[in-house]
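Submission checklist for the structure archive. All mandatory fields must be present; incomplete records are returned to the submitter.

[x] Identifier: Citrate lyase subunit beta/citryl-CoA lyase
[x] Organism: Bradyrhizobium elkanii
[x] Residue count: 284
[x] Sequence attached
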Amino acid sequence: MRSFLFVPGDSTRKYESAKKTAADALILDLEDSIAPDQKVVARSITRQMLDARNPEQKLYIRVNALDTDLTLGDLAAVMSGKPDGIVLPKCAGAADVNRLALYLDAFEAASDIAQGTTRIVTVATETARAVLKILDFENMSPRLWGMMWGAEDLAASLGATRNRSDGRYHSPFILARDLCLIGAAAAGVVAIDTIATDINDLDALKAEAIAARQDGFLAKAVIHPKHVDVVNAAFMPTDEEIAWSERVIAAFANNPSGVAKMDGKMLDKPHLRAAEKILASRRK
């Protein structure tokens, strides 16, 4: 998985456009992109989208946050369509994940879905409290598959007038990004980089996506179809990285001791794991 394309849950036109992209997954949104008086209507439209899916793409649903009293209604409307996962916004740690997991247990049973198969992706940095809870993953449901960070809602939570200047995030938002990456690695789940808000600056998008992959993010969220190909390319390893990885694996093949030598340098298990991860990323 490299790219997650957000699609408003009430726009069949944008959904049809999104289905034609190479996005690995679509996130059908019932939260921020939907006006309050359209929430109920969006649920039924989103349910129809699930029936008209592109089998090459995963479909996730971003429900409304747990404190809105809309989450259960969202799930009741869409779970019979068997989404691949649920994106939980404004998530504050294990308690929120486990509460959603409990809901999913019930809806899977009611919809004849194999128990435990619906993934959870959290948006883990949208409030100050959520940032402080990123490392709260002990005894968390195994449904958790990924953690995404976001800067827009966090700015409002902090009272910040902006989250970046001259294309660079300010320090509180860099902290949130890095904690999401570290928290996801510690929890053993996928770290997902946030959206790029400038739709037309594809060079900046490319640089941002490459930096995210180099730091350890495994995917990136996008908000426009023309961002998909840029992100997909950025999250594929380079020819140089692939060649290095293949040489590392070959160097270890005849060294069961766990230490190898290549180009006059010693290699140990972390190098091998890095090489294996690079080669695995060639596949979705």
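[x] Structure attached
Curator remark: The first strand starts at residue 3 and ends at 8. Residues 94-110 form the longest helix (17 residues).
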